[in-house]
Every structure is written in C-alpha cells, then in structure tokens.
Amino acid sequence: MKLYSYWRSTTSYRIRAALNLKGLAYDAVPVDLVAGDQRAPDYVALNAGKGVPTLVLEDGTALTQSMALLEYIDATWPEPRLIPADALLRAQVMAVAHTVALDIHPVNNLRLIGQLRTRFGATPDQATDWMCHWMNEGFAALEAMLPAGDSFAFGDAPNIADICITAQVYNAHRWGVDLTHFPKTARIERLCLNIPAIADAHPDTQPDNRTDAKVAT
C-alpha cells in the first residue's frame, strides 16, 4: 500500500497511527500542502478533493477521506479493533471521533485559513485566534463527552476516538491552546504517545518533516 500524506496533516496522522497499530506496512508518499502538491494533475487523479490522506491499495484502488479510511482499515484488518462492535459503545466512540473530525478540524484546515487571509484580510494573529477558539470550543465538548478515569477514551486500549483526539492535540500544542483546562483530552494524548505505534506516527517523526512549513493542518 501507499499512503499519500503530509507530515503536519492531522488527518494523515490519524491514518499513520491506525496502520501502525494494525502492524500494516505501507510506503509513505509525501504531498507538500504548502507547496501545492495536492493540486498537481496526477495527484488530483487520485484524490479529486485535493487533500490528504490518500491510501492506494495493492490493486491500485485509491481511497480518500480519513474517517472512511479508518472504517475501511478496521473492517479489513479487525485486530486490534478501533471501532467497537457494540452498537451503544460504537455510537459513543464515534460521537467523540466526529467531534474532532467534523466540528474542530474542518474550521481549522489549510483551505479555510487561506480563505480567511486572502478573501477577508485576516492577519496571522487573527487566524491563530480563530483556530484556538474552535479548538477550545471542541475540547470543552470532548471533556463533557469523555468518561472519567485514568485510561483511554472508552477502555484499556486506544480506539478511533483516541486517535482523532491525539492528532488534534498536536495542533493544539502547535498553536498554544492551554490544555490544563482539558485534563481528559490531555490524558488521552499522553497515553497514546506512550504507545510506539502511535508515537511513530507523530508529525515530528515523519521523513518529510519541515520545521519551516507555514500553516497546514
């Protein structure tokens, strides 16, 4: 398999973590979002949405959208399970995962921030304030949704909710969100990064890591 990703992309981080947890081998193909690689014709042929990640299977099938990819990966390689089989628990886990994937991430990604700057004249500080506002809003919701305790989001092993949270917290650190207000969220990231498979998926460990990169989430 080939995983087209960008090192700082939190959606790519989710998929790297899932593939690593499953023990699946893949070739990483960098897509530099800042340089505009996602708009190259050969990449658009794989991913019409001009985003990352894209997972290309052995038979050449290209799959996109991180949440759909997580479902595919979990259904195809069910151990360790990332999405619970129990219907009630699955609904609770997916609600947390979707709070990150549908409420927090979309209003903080590269395309939207670019529009705030170019169309509406937002300054870099205003763009950062925007991102931090929506992360604070989303993390407050997560704190209310997550059970108390000293383990992962919903059990003794990480699942799709933990993966989504951990990837989003990377951005929170990057933009200066104070996590002392969100102890459950911070605990989940800490536990996840103690797992080598997830730590190895962290943006800072990726071969295309560019510390001079501008905004790209």
TrEMBL record:
Tagged with keyword Isomerase: yes
InterPro entries: Glutathione-S-Trfase_C-like (IPR010987), Glutathione-S-Trfase_C_sf (IPR036282), Glutathione_S-Trfase (IPR040079), Glutathione_S-Trfase_N (IPR004045), GST_Zeta (IPR005955), GST_Zeta_C (IPR034330), GST_Zeta_N (IPR034333), Thioredoxin-like_sf (IPR036249)
Keywords attached to this entry: Isomerase
Keyword Isomerase: yes
Domain of life: Bacteria
GO molecular function: isomerase activity
Pfam families given in the database record: GST_N
GST C-terminal domain location: 86-211
Protein name (Swiss-Prot/TrEMBL): Maleylacetoacetate isomerase
